[in-house]
Every structure is written in C-alpha cells, then in structure tokens.
Amino acid sequence: MIAQLFLMKGTRCLVRLLHFNPTFPKRSSMQPSVLWPNEWLPCVVGNGLVWSYSSMTIRSSPTCRRAARSVCPIRRAAFGDDDGPAVIFPLRKSRAADASPAFPPFAHAQVKATACELVSQTDQPLSRQSTADITRRVNEVLERLMSKTTVWRTLKRDAIQPWRYRYWIFPRAPRFGPQAAAMLDLYAGLWQGEPLGRNDFVISSDEKTSIQARIRCHASLAPRSAAPLCIEPEDKRGGALQYLAAWDVGRGRVFGRCEAQTGIASFERLVDQVMQPQPYCHADRVFWRVDNGSSQRGERAVKRLEAKYPNAIMVQTPVHASWLNQIEIYFSIMQRKVLTPNDFRSLAAVEERLTQFEQLHNAHPTPFHWKFDREQLNDCMTRLNKRRMARGEPPLDLAEQPLDMTEQFLDLAA
C-alpha cells in the first residue's frame, strides 16, 4: 500500500502531462522505475534528472508546490518543458472582447496629439491635463469610446506625461551660441583655440541671494521608527543674507562668503578672498566666469577687475546662460543638503552652517565631470532655432568657430 502511494505521487507528473498533452509519446524509457529499498522512488523522464517522489519543497522537482502568489502555477517536467498548469482557472476576459477589435493607429495618434498640445491655448479651463481629461476629450472626437486604461497605456508607450511640468530658461541673446561655446572651451581647457597652461585657472562665480532664516514656532521632532522628521509649518522671519561663492573648476574647491547685500563692494571682497592667497596670486591667468549681475555687467566691470588684478580675465556669460555655470551645481547641492528644510534659530546659524559645509566640501574636493560640449550646444541651438523660426522669430547664431571674447563685451553689455 505504501509503495502504491509513493508510486501515485511519482507518476503524478506523467499523468498530468498525458492529460494536458495527449500527443506526448508513451515510451518505456519514460516510465517510472522500480521502488527503491528506502521507499524513495526516483522519477526519470528521458535524459532528465532523478528526483525523489516525496520532494515537495525543491523548486526543481516536478512535485514541488508553488507559492500561492502564482495564479496558474506551472510545474516543470524532467525533459525541460512544463507539464501543464496545476489548476485551471476560468479566463478573466469579457465575452465582448473578441467582438471589440483593437483601436486603429489614428486613435492612438489622436491621444498623443491631445496630450501634447498646450491646453491653455484651447477652450478648456485647465492648465494641465490628467488621464481622465485626455480620455474625455479623445472620446469627443472618436466614434468609439476609449477607456482611461487604454489612454494611459498609449501615453506610457511614448513616455508622455502632460500632467508634469518644469521651468526652463530659453536663450534669447543673438550671439548666444558663440558666447556660450567660449564658456564650454574653458571647461575643456581651451581659450581662443589655444590650450590652457598648467598655471592657468578657471573660476566660476555667482550669487545666491535672499537666504532666509525661518525660526519655527515649535521645536522640530527628530525622526523615529515609522515617522519622518516633523517640522512646524508656522515660522517667524529672522532676516536674510546673500551668499557669494567662487568655484575652482579644475581643483573642485569652493570659496564663499556671506554678505548683507550684493553689489560691487561685496563682489570685490570675494575676488580678494580668492586672488590674494596661493596659487592664484602668482598664476599666469585666472579666468573669472560671471553672470550678468549688477556688479559684474558691462565693460566697466572688466576694467575694474583687470586694474586690480592684471592676471585676472573676466568672462561674462550671455543672458539666460546660468545653466552653463558650474557654481550653480554647487548651489543646488547646498540647497538640498544645507538649506532644506529651512529650520534655523537665527541668521547667524545660517551663516555658520554655510561656512561649515564649505569646509566639509573642501576637505575632499572633487571637480565636476562636465560633459556638455560644443557639439551638444550646436544640437541644442538647432532645435531652438526650429522653434523660433516656426514662431516667426530670427534664428540665433551657432557655435562654429572659437570666439575672441574680448571683442564681445560691448555686445554683452547691450
């Protein structure tokens, strides 16, 4: 009786295989072997492995029981194929599904066109569209009704998310391409087509204005198990300061200072902080990349810097080119790690934390790995010019040849 019981367990894989696959060849080599003396009966199918009939936990065994998460578990047979599902479930498919053909390509194109248009320029009182909004508008055009799931699958296939948005600065300076290319040449170690020397340095500087100290009306609660950091939303304004910083592109070091306000005097103090110590005081050339702030704009700012430090060369970026300034990357890191969330006891605590973070970074300086070059800039300008020409605007100049920036200061000031 025990032998028959083990025999039934051992032949279960073959019986199930014959039930779901009647064309399975019935060969004598695929029949179970004789009972072993230790009451374990091996199941040999073709040239497959030998399994014990009583093995219910080994995943490679044909008698292994799958986990309950599988809707229709499949058990493998010894010859490499599966021996059919262990349980047959009814098809979860509507009877009208066969009678409902798939949507034609025009319907999918209509979904994408509706999702990619600016809804603010239509008659809809919306600024952004959700999946339900797109479905409603598409069903007004199509003769058949389309579900939200079908619309979602169509948009996901092309990674279209009309409910998301981001702010973007569009360049509008006429010679944005050549001027921005000169900035990228400095990152690549070039200036006016010539390589930089070993005693040349590139400094990227900017201002992060109006850093506020928000004093919370209730002390924050530290994070604990299953609970994040809790911060009181109501606060008192403790004043604001301005943070001026200079980033050494080649060495990865930062020089910063806090000021009560921005201006020419504040910027000159930052320049003194960088240019007076080694190695910048004895450098051959120190290129200062600055934005179009009030203290660094025009030819007068160039002459002021050159008169005080003859080895300093000011390179002014075109309008809306702050995304080409590497100091903005450091400001982004500082905003995430130091200033968010804004929970300070006083304005002095803000200045102290900014100074300590600067020291922490300079302990292990690492330059940014900049990848954006002239070729990618030209591709970006080409796409931008297509949009400008479609709107009837004149195209911007491309970055084709190295530009002598000393001849463009008047254009930048204008």
List strands and helices in order, with pairings.
Layout lengths: L1 H9 L1 H9 L21 E2 L7 E2 L21 E3 L5 E4 L19 H12 L14 H11 L6 H10 L18 H12 L2 E2 L2 E2 L4 E17 L18 E14 L5 E6 L4 H12 L9 E6 L7 H11 L3 E5 L10 H11 L9 H17 L10 H17 L18 H5 L1
Parallel strand pairs: 7-10, 10-11
Antiparallel strand pairs: 1-2, 3-4, 5-6, 7-8, 8-9
Helix pairs in contact: 3-4, 6-11
Looking at this protein, list some descriptive labels.
two-stranded antiparallel sheet, 12 helices, 5-stranded mixed beta sheet, Nucleotidyltransferase, domain 5, disordered N terminus, 414 residues, 3 domains, disordered C terminus, alpha+beta
How would you explain this protein's 3D organization?
The protein is an alpha+beta fold and 414 residues long. It has three domains: 2-85, no CATH class; 105-157; 176-218 and 233-413, Nucleotidyltransferase, domain 5, CATH 3.30.420.10. The chain has helices at residues 2-10, 12-20, 105-116, 131-141, 148-157, 176-187, 264-275, 298-308, 327-337, 347-363, 374-390, 409-413; strands spanning 42-43, 51-52, 74-76, 82-85, 190-191, 194-195, 200-216, 235-248, 254-259, 285-290, 312-316. The chain has a five-stranded mixed sheet. Strands 1-2 form a two-stranded antiparallel ribbon. Helix 3 packs across helix 4. The longest helix has 17 residues, at 347-363. The radius of gyration is 35 Å and the shape is globular. The termini are far apart. Residues 1-7, 26-55, 67-72, 77-89 and 403-414 have low confidence and may be disordered.
